[in-house]
Structure prediction request, 181 residues.
Amino acid sequence: MTARTLSTLVATAQTAVGAEFALLYTPTADDRLEIVASAGRLVAPATTAVEPEETYAGMVLGSQQPVAMQVRAGDQRVRAETALIGHGPSALCYVPCVGDAEVRGVLALLDKAGGGGFDFDDVEIATMLAEVAGTALEERDDSTESPSPETLGRMLENLATNDPGRYAQVATLVEMVLASG
Prediction:
């Protein structure tokens, strides 16, 4: 899976939930977290790896549970994000990116546009996109090739049969990704 695909997924998540910023963290070989894709106007390059225990992304990576909350001023667990966006975020939504029953990364959404916090619907949308990102990260980790159109077709057919509601949501998200470019 290419960096462009991951960037498009992150930008789609940012737009879909109305976040000002979005980041995709993945674990490194030395057990740190690095940002592999971002969306929003970052004030610093997203190149520094962070220690998982120093951020909410690490908590989500370890617990495999999403978190959405308002952030208190001075919260030290958002230091890395503060350096990237130029201020402490007021709200965050972090969801695990699961691929092949293993957490492959964390999708981080920061600062709800217009203020306020991320709600249940935002977490649900972010979770669906994080599932796609998890699969993309799994494919990236397992191979340098994307799944064939036939494989993707079988996967979508299986989803349509087993969970038509989720299939409709995925179809809508795919349309958003294709429309973005």
The longest strand covers residues 102-112. Helices lie at 3-17, 56-63, 79-85, 120-142, 149-162, 164-180. The mean pLDDT is 86. Residues 120-142 form the longest helix (23 residues).
